Amino acid sequence: MISYNPKSWLALIFHLTKSDTISILWRELVFIFVFTMGVALAEDLFFPKAMVLEKLFSIYSILGFVISLLLAFRTNTAYDRWWEGRKNWGQLVNDSRNLAVKLTSLDLSTEDNHFFGRHIGNFALCIKEHLRAGTNYDILDITPEERTFLEGLDHVPSGIVELMYCRLNKLKKAGVVSEEDLIRLDRNLNGFLDCVGACERIKNTPIPYSYSMFFKKFIFSYVITLPFAFVVNFGYWSAIIATFIFYVFVSIEVLAEEIEDPFGTDDNDLPTDEMAQRIQGIVRTILDRV
């Protein structure tokens, strides 16, 4: 995710990144410009009095308004998914910190504190990779025995929570942790699994295919025929107007596609790398001082 100063207008306007839609759509923009110039030239040379085209202008004005409403709904839907992902990660930060603080109130050994510090941080790192291409065991702070256990599982985040539950049960049998302590800690450990489940729901439930294809076909049909409605009124200036309209409409769709899956590595995705490292640092700071 890109960090920026929203008050620096000029810097934002003239600073291009790989996620900027101009960088993504420049070929299509050139095509629309050249195509519209060709339509304007053909109209000027062969159909200078094609008055029927002039009637299309009002129709395309109405269609443009309809597309604007649809794109607003499309963007809101995508942003809701992005924001829900951010809320889930925010809750993960809270549960991780709360669990670490609760553990400090128990009479645990240094080894036990180190164990829970490792695996609370491991869970954040694991879920971050789990929502992308899969778990990267090399970034986890685990023993060879723990790695062997986790590699035999289909769902690694649940395995890390299972390791913590097993350790708590051993401490309960040893009399170090009471039943009341387990109940208090269970709330936060369940929050870990709730977080990964909510994020998986966002990840594994894309926008319906027919819904997405309708937008793309509607926008394409509108933009590719737009020059025929504009050339009578604007002549060769239609090339600039049609290209700009294409840029605005298609950019909104491209941005919506990018943020509807917020757990990747695109510039507008959630900063899960930084948040996972922050959780790891916070938890170890809390538990290492005990």
Count of extended strands: 0
Averaged pLDDT: 86
Tell me the number of helical segments per DSSP (H or I, 4 or more residues long): 10
Give the ordered list of helices and strands.
HHHHHHHHHH
Share of residues in strands = under 5%
Using the alpha-carbon principal axes, give the shape: rod-shaped
Helix content percent band: over 70%
Structural class: mainly alpha
Major sheet characteristics: none
Radius of gyration: 27 Å
Uncertain regions spanning at least 5 consecutive residues: none
In whole angstroms, the N-to-C terminal distance is: 34 Å
Explain this structure to me?
- The protein is mainly α.
- Helix content is 76%, strand content 0%.
- The protein is built from ten helices and no strands.
- The protein has helices at 9-14, 21-46, 56-104, 110-130, 144-151, 156-173, 179-204, 209-234, 238-259, 272-288.
- Helix 3 crosses helix 8 (209-234), helix 4 packs antiparallel against helix 6 and helix 8 (209-234) runs antiparallel to helix 9 (238-259).
- It is rod-shaped and about 95 Å long.
- The two termini are 34 Å apart.
- The model has no long low-confidence stretch (mean pLDDT 86).
Report a brief summary of the structure.
The chain is mainly α and 290 residues long. The chain is 76% helix and 0% strand.
Topology:
Blueprint: H1 9-14, H2 21-46, H3 56-104, H4 110-130, H5 144-151, H6 156-173, H7 179-204, H8 209-234, H9 238-259, H10 272-288
